[in-house]
Each structure stands twice: as structure tokens, then as C-alpha cells.
Amino acid sequence: MIIGSVIHSLVHTRPDTAYTVFILLRAMSKPTLHHYKATRCLLVYLRSTRTLGIENHQERMLENEDRDQYSEAAVDASFAD
Asked: Could you give the number of structural domains in the chain?
């Protein structure tokens, strides 16, 4: 149940936890105390970093003359149709 909740956060808001979640998913058939402790550490990490994130302010970026401080990226939202 915990891993299901963490997967939800991974998909929607927290891609930084992908590696840890996928490692824990491999152990779902035979979880041990070690995996439970690792899951607890992941939950502590998520709670302690809940205010961190990437913000996207296009208006502010376009108004600013110093564009060197911004990153540019491209996204393929067609899902390879």
C-alpha cells in the first residue's frame, strides 16, 4: 500500500524518487525488513523535501532580460503517436 502511494507521487510530482521506487518495486514479491526500512527512509525524504520543486513562470522568463539564468527544454507530448 505504501509503494502504491509512492508510485502515485512519482508519476504526478516527484520524478526524483524514480530510482528508489523501482528498486523497491523489484522486492514486492518477497519484501523484508530491509525493504520496509528503505521505504520509511523514502517517506522521510519525501516529507522533508515537500516544499522543493521546479517552478515554471513563463511570463517572468519572457519579461526578464537576463535569459542566461533559465534553461530551455522541449517536450514531446504526442506520446510517439
From this structure: 1
